[in-house]
Amino acid sequence: MNSAARIEAFLEMMSAERGAAENTLSSYRRDLEDASDAIDGGLAGAAPADIRAYLDDIAARGFAPTSQARKLSAIRQFFKFLYAEGLRGDDPTGTLDSPKKGRPLPKTMNEADTGRLIDRAAQEAGDVSLGDGDRLASLRLHALVEVLYATGLRVSELVGLPVTVAQRDDRFFMVRGKGDKERMVPLSAKARTAMKAWLAARARVPAFADSPFLFPAASDSGYLSRQVFARDLKGLAARAGIASAKISPHVLRHAFASHLLQNGADLRAVQQLLGHADISTTQIYTHVLEERLVRLVNDHHPLAD
Predict the structure, then answer these.
(1) Average pLDDT over residues 120-126
(2) What are the CA-CA distances from residue 47 to residues 8, 41, 89, 246, 261 (Å)?
(3) Is 100 a catalytic residue?
(4) Exactly one of 154, 192, 202, 254 is catalytic; which is it?
(5) CA gap 248, 230 in Å, rounded
């Protein structure tokens, strides 16, 4: 059984029928090819014992339970596809248990550190003593940080935003997220101002002026890579006196959600803003709600100490 061809067919199905994003497809490919390389005869013809041995092997190699569970999930979906297509008469993953994993709380930032980060970005964007290249980079970074914290976008959604989002100057815009689903997200006045400043600077760069993307770059995609933004964000954090190891685009997305909940937002509203298909995904933030409820009782209950 040709495992490589079966994996390609599975990935094509995930792309065409389920609208899986490029990042998701790349992750599936890595996990399935790793399993196929490790199993004698390839993944497509594997028996339950082969897959169990592979899972034992990656555990022994030091993969975290979350990574083990992700790999098993990819393998399960692959065999469901083979079974549904009549390419196998059984599913060898049916009797396998998922690795036990804890549910870690998301890394986030408190409001004070987030404010310091954004203030530093604004300060650098307003520094007229910078050379043209540094000034352009600082205006872009300020816009990125303001928009990310205002919207809670996934980093892939942020860097790939169309330029029309800034040109319209609306308080809300639609974004197409995972599974090709659209949702509405808000834009603060500060985010719109930062985008306008970046748009004006961007228009003066001939290579960027006609790009359909808000944050264009000389890359295969045509827009800024996630890695470049993550690197620039860490540099900004260091200059703001915040440990760069604590900051990433995903941390700012979590800060957006946590700070909304701390200040009274409804969990389902936050679910919609984040683009989570299932409320259970958003419930990683229930610790924030619990802290808020404890504060509410302590501050307002007549018998509280």
Answers:
(1) 96
(2) 20, 10, 12, 42, 47
(3) no
(4) 154
(5) 6
285 is catalytic: yes
Cite the DSSP H helix spans in the chain.
3-16, 22-38, 48-60, 65-84, 111-125, 132-151, 155-159, 164-168, 189-202, 206-209, 226-239, 249-262, 267-274, 279-282, 286-300
Tokens of 65: 């339970």
The whole-angstrom separation of Cα 239 and Cα 233 is 10
Of the pLDDT bands very low, low, confident and very high (cuts 50, 70, 90), residue 293 is low
Asked if the model's pLDDT at residue 11 lies above 80, the reply is yes
Q: Tokens 């399935």 map to which residue?
A: 32
pTM, two decimal places? 0.63
DSSP assignment letter at 3: H
Identify the pLDDT of residue 7.
Answer: 94
Is a pLDDT exceeding 80 seen at residue 303?
A: no
Residue with tokens 């919609």: 272
- Domains of the chain (ranges; CATH) run 3-84 (1.10.150.130), 111-249 (1.10.443.10)
Model pLDDT for residues 212-270, shown as the tens digit of each residue: 999 999 888 999 999 999 999 999 999 999 998 889 998 998 888 888 887 777 778 87
Among residues 28, 54, 149, 285, which one is catalytic? 285
For residue 30, the one-letter residue type is R
Catalytic one among 80, 190, 250, 292? 250
Asked if pLDDT for residue 104 goes beyond 60, the answer is no
Q: What is the pLDDT of residue 225?
A: 94
| CB of 13 closer than 8 Å to CB of 28 | no
Catalytic residue among 88, 140, 253, 259: 253
**Which of 116, 135, 178, 292 is the catalytic position?**
178
